[in-house]
């Protein structure tokens, strides 16, 4: 696996997983899953479309795992064997300010990424 960068870039597609809670603050066992990219994403249409399809395929694995025990167990075993390849501890991540813009008219959330030095380091 390639070395991971700990900061977000404008061309990144971020899959956000947010736990859902009851009105009393108890986790429901569910989560909201959404895809976020920067409004400054300057990928051309072909690359953007390819990335969009790839992300949709990743997200499609969620209902497939829910419906297919074999797939669920296969992925679970893989994650157990390769957990450290994917997990990035929070303390090793650089700080990046993320500005979220959303709209009631579509299902796209756009981000603006800034660093503490705002490119002036």
Task: Name the features.
4-stranded mixed beta sheet; alpha+beta; 2 helices; 121 residues; globular
Average predicted local confidence, pLDDT: 80
Uncertain segments: none
Quantity of strands, as a count: 4
The helical percent reads 25-40%
* First-residue to last-residue Cα separation: 29 Å
Provide structural commentary:
With 121 residues, this protein is α+β, with helices and mostly antiparallel strands. The protein is 34% helix and 27% strand. The protein is built from two helices and four strands.
List the SSEs and their pairings:
Elements: E1 13-21, E2 27-38, H1 45-67, H2 69-86, E3 97-102, E4 109-114
In short:
This protein is of the alpha+beta class and 121 residues long.
